[in-house]
Amino acid sequence: MNALVANKVTALPVAAPPGQWIGAGGSMIMESDKQTGVVRKHYIGMVTMLDILAYIADDDNQMMGSDVGGDANLERKMTVPISLIIGRSFEGLSLWTLNPNTSILDCMELFSKGIHRALVPMDSQMENVQGVELVESASSYKMLTQMDLLKFLNDHASELGEILSSSIKEIGCLNQSVFSITDRTKVIDAIKCLKTAMLHAVPIVESSNLIKEDDKQLVDGKGRKPIGTFSATDLRGCHFSALQTWLPLSALEFTELVSSSPLFAARERVSAPKEIVSCQPDSALSEAIEKIVYNHVHRVWVVDQQGLLAGLVSLTDIVGAVRVSLLSKIDIM
User: Fold this and answer.
1) DSSP 228-280
2) Which residues 6+ apart lie within 8 Å of 156 measured at CB?
3) SS3 breakdown of the chain: % helix, strand, coil, rounded to 5?
């Protein structure tokens, strides 16, 4: 968690000594000495903040106690090897690599399938291929993410004028399915909801007095007013000593507390959890991309003129829509 905070990232590759582990998805992604070729590391998987939170949230009955045992249990959980946590969310079950010469369109194809990040070998001799079972060896790697790709598109907006000027609804990147939690949902239940649905963030909506809802489950957020956002990313700044106190709080109360955290305040140009980063169905795609890049969020909530949820636009949705539009232009040419 300290590494995630220090580097302002939401995921880290996990490296192990060679010959001791099976890589995620059967992959064999090695890091070797550039001079001697001797293998130094074997990348065995990816660990995300959601993996860590899903692990912490397990056996919550022990953690919710007010006695010393609860604190001791949480402290024990925070000292286990990270190898025990890999794969608690879907993303950690696979490792993807992209050859440095891979075209932007091919990168977009991978990221449009919901893959959030890939390792890029800096001195690869492999063919231009991508895959979860790829055998790769290089002296160093870099990480390419969906956010990197969106920043690239934003920086080259003038070359994509017609595509980016289209509305998010017109270009087909509006996802009308939007799950949410209510303002009564506890932090620990919210974490379990994220894990179950493989989501990294959900909007918080006002609880209803008209219908009976289970505050421990996700609810259909469409047509309801968002009053905050609960994100796994926001929890990375919590020192483990604070987690014991924060887990029983409501997710809405958590957003108020984390906004005043020194670690959160140190993050540049990031929207506060209670701030709703949103747009409307007829907003230009360029507006959605600008808001994502500026606020460093991974989705924008879409609201109607009354401020009620109409859907969302994720990085995956945007990458897929832009790729289809670019391919259609190539076909026409």
Assistant:
1) EEEEGGGGGG--HHHHHHHTTSBHHHHHHHHHT-HHHHTSTT---TTS--EE-
2) none
3) 40, 20, 40
d(CA 14, CA 18): 12
Q: Which of 114-123, 143-152, 169-178 has the lowest mean pLDDT?
A: 114-123
Give the Cα separation of 123 and 137 in Å (integer).
9
State which amino acid sits at residue 301.
W
CA distance 221 to 230: 13
* pLDDT of amino acid 300: 96
pLDDT in tens, 53-69: 778 777 544 444 443 34
E-strand ranges in 160-215 read 179-182, 201-205
Measured CA to CA, the distance from residue 188 to residue 193 in angstroms comes to: 9
CA distance 232 to 275: 16
Among 210, 213, 215, 203, which residue's Cα sits nearest to residue 311? 203
Q: Looking only at Cα atoms, what is the longest distance across the chain?
A: 70
Task: Say if residue 37's pLDDT is above 50.
Answer: yes
Give the whole-angstrom CA distance, residue 95 versus residue 24: 6
Q: What is the mean pLDDT of the chain?
A: 83
CB 128 within 8 A of CB 246: no
